[in-house]
Each structure stands twice: as structure tokens, then as C-alpha cells.
Write a structure and sequence with these properties.
Elements: E1 6-12, H1 18-26, E2 34-38, H2 51-54, H3 67-78, E3 83-89, E4 94-102, E5 107-111, H4 119-124, E6 127-132, H5 135-149, H6 154-173, E7 182-185, H7 191-210
Parallel strand pairs: 1-5, 1-6, 2-5, 6-7
Antiparallel strand pairs: 3-4
């Protein structure tokens, strides 16, 4: 690759629709030229802790993420080198032994709740998006996801949301909205915003191609 890859950050609260937005943008491009990297894959390894201790982890706090490794991997991709993206096991609450090989691409989409909280990550992004969705919609989506995909009970999801998720959202996630270049209301339902972003990304790619 002769040109520096484009990095697009897609942030927003839990259940906001940021994953849908990121995937909708991803599917608009040839898979040979684009890659999607989830910040969730970079939760810190907790294998040194007991299972009971892991259950106390606050996954909505900036310190839950291994941003140092994520930034190291992004620099590798920017330099045309492949990476081994971690895989997180949500049932065991620690990093899996598996990894996913990721090759460098022309466009890198980052997706995660706290991408805009870290200044080092912001500085690497060419476009910063924040997906903004009402809290009642977000909690319903989180309930469905955690029960279906992460083996959680309804009671545990509600308790975690009221005691941890909502306070962390107000303290750490909501304030990062000010760093966004574009705020997308209603997530994946906002086709106009998604189409505009795809058009903008294509324009950047074409501009870099002629430089």
C-alpha cells in the first residue's frame, strides 16, 4: 500500500447503534480494501484474576481497555504490517487464547464506546463519528444483546445498567460527543447520515489516490 490508510472512528453509548453504523459503512466497500476493528476486542486480559474477581470488572470504564495494544496495532496497520487481533471471551470475562489475523487495508473502521475518550486514538482518526440514541432504546438493545449473546440474566443486566453502565455513560462517554466531527442520531436507522459518510469516505480515498 503506497498511501496511508484512512481511520474512521465510530463511537457512542452502549446500544446506540454504533456497531450497525460501522457495519453498514463496511459493507459499502470492497472487503479487500476495508477492515473493521472493535474496541471490545481490546478489553484487558484478566487471566491473572479469579473468576469472582473478573465478575467485578467495570467494562464501561476507560481503564477496562488495553488501548496501548490497540494503538500499537493501529500503527502496525498504518505501516503496512499485519496484526493478531485479540478475541475476548465474555463468558469467562478474560481474553481468549485465540487471535484473528488482520491484514493492512486502505480503510480502517474503529468501533467502540470509548474510542473518543483517548486523545491518542483521536489523533489517529481521519473522521470521528458519534452515534447518539435515546437512553431507553439503548438499554433495551443492551438487554437483548447481553441475554442472547453473552449468557446474562435479565436481572444482572438491569443491575449492571443502573449501577455501572448509566453512570459511566454520563461520566465518560457522553462528554466525548464534543470531539466528534459528525453526530449521527438514531444509529443504523439514519440512512441519510450513513450514505453521506460513505460518500465522504470515497472522496477521501479518491483524493489520496491522486496525491
Amino acid at each position: 500500500m503506497g498511501k496511508r490508510p484512512i481511520i474512521i472512528g465510530v463511537a457512542g453509548g452502549t446500544g446506540s447503534g454504533k456497531t450497525t453504523v460501522a457495519k453498514e459503512i463496511f459493507y459499502q466497500f470492497n472487503e479487500k480494501s476495508i477492515v473493521l476493528i472493535e474496541q471490545d476486542a481490546y478489553y484487558k486480559d484478566q487471566s491473572q484474576l479469579s473468576f469472582e474477581e473478573r465478575l467485578q470488572t467495570n467494562y464501561d470504564h476507560p481503564l477496562a481497555f488495553d488501548n496501548d495494544l490497540l494503538i500499537e496495532h493501529l500503527h502496525s496497520l498504518l505501516n503496512g504490517q499485519s496484526i493478531e487481533k485479540p478475541v475476548y471471551d465474555y463468558k469467562l470475562h478474560t481474553r481468549s487464547n485465540e487471535v484473528i489475523l488482520v491484514e493492512p487495508k486502505d480503510v480502517i473502521i474503529l468501533e467502540g464506546i470509548l474510542l473518543l475518550e483517548d486523545e491518542r486514538l483521536r489523533e489517529l482518526m481521519d473522521i470521528k463519528l458519534f452515534v447518539d440514541t435515546d437512553a431507553d432504546i439503548r438499554i433495551i438493545r443492551r438487554m437483548v444483546r447481553d441475554i442472547r449473546e453473552r449468557g446474562r440474566t435479565l436481572e444482572s443486566v438491569i443491575e449492571q445498567y443502573t449501577k455501572v453502565v448509566r453512570p459511566m455513560h454520563m461520566q465518560f462517554i457522553e462528554p466525548t460527543k464534543r470531539y466528534a466531527d459528525v453526530i449521527i442520531p438514531e444509529g443504523g436507522q439514519n440512512r441519510v447520515a450513513i450514505d453521506l459518510m460513505v460518500t465522504k469516505i470515497r472522496a477521501i480515498i479518491e483524493e489520496k489516490a491522486v496525491l
